[in-house]
Amino acid sequence: MATGVLGPERAQIDKRTLRQDRWWIYPLVTFIVFLAFVVYSSWRAFSGRDYYASPYLSPFFSPCISTSCVAGSSDFGQPVDFLPAWFSPALLILIFPLGFRLTCYYYRKAYYRSFWLSPAACAVAEPHKKYTGERRFPLILQNIHRWFFYAAVIIAIILTYDVVIAFRDEDHRWGHMGLGTLILLVNVVLIWLYTLSCHSCRHITGGRLRNFSKHPVRYRFWTFVSKLNAHHPRYAWASLISVALADFYIYLLATNVISDVRFF
Question: Which keywords belong to this entry (predicted)?
């Protein structure tokens, strides 16, 4: 009978783990940060207010395309006119970047371990008696990650446009730069790094090529994305924090708690 990893059952170990290190720190920190982000983003999304301080628009609400959007925040028009006034404009947009993150390969690992303890860490026993993978509902929906990637690219382009127009003053005159401009700029750079370092992006650029020499442009792009992919978890965390900080800064401006620092 086969033994070890080829055995028919899991190893019978009475203890949860034989590890001596503090393996529980990573899933605990992940749990706290994710939960904090979920609570904060849910509050901001459902509040539907204090998201625009000219010329800055919160990334949670961009693009603001509902007729309930405040004046000056809809650079792409307001084609969505069938929703009630109380419906937050963010709920139209956040489904795409959040869907991209929730189905992300790295984030799956992170929240599977921290929220579901499946498993909590390497060589740590999980509380679940069996594992069916991502072949059944609802986890089979993780397979739509690539489609969310396409939507995430569109959102990143729109956020880049928001940075460009953030070089205006509150009267929409060009030649302005404030702290909000820099915050949005840093945020969109991290968003692009996270998006382009995605595993799906790497597969799309060169995953199915059989001969790289016949596709030199795609090979160069695949090589570039592969280098970014090595740091994908860092970009995931950094962009998650930066998008929340960008929204919070604009919230403080919109509620007149602080004033924007002007550089010129």
Answer: Membrane, Transmembrane, Transmembrane helix
Reported as a single tens digit per residue, the pLDDT across 173-229 is 898 899 999 999 999 999 999 999 999 999 999 888 888 888 999 999 999 999 999
Q: Residue 242: helix, strand or coil by DSSP?
A: helix
Length of the chain: 264
Decide if 166 contacts 218 (C-beta within 8 A): no
Ranking 15-19, 65-69, 113-117 by mean pLDDT, the lowest is: 15-19
Helix (H, G, I), strand (E, B) or coil at 178: strand
The whole-model pTM stands at: 0.89
State how far the Cα of 179 lies from the Cα of 263, in Å rounded to an integer: 7
Average pLDDT over residues 12-31: 84
Spatial distance between the Cα atoms of 187 and 205, rounded to a whole number of angstroms: 24
Token pair belonging to 85: 């006034």
Q: Write out pLDDT tens, residues 45-58.
A: 999 999 999 999 99
What's the N-to-C CA distance of the chain in angstroms? 75
How far apart CA 227 and CA 220 sit, in angstroms, is 11
Count, in order, helices (H) and strands (E) of the chain.
Answer: 9, 2
> How many angstroms separate the CA atoms of 182 and 59, rounded?
14
* Chain position carrying tokens 């003053």: 169
* Inter-CA distances, 211 with 208, 214, 226, 228, Å: 9, 6, 17, 22
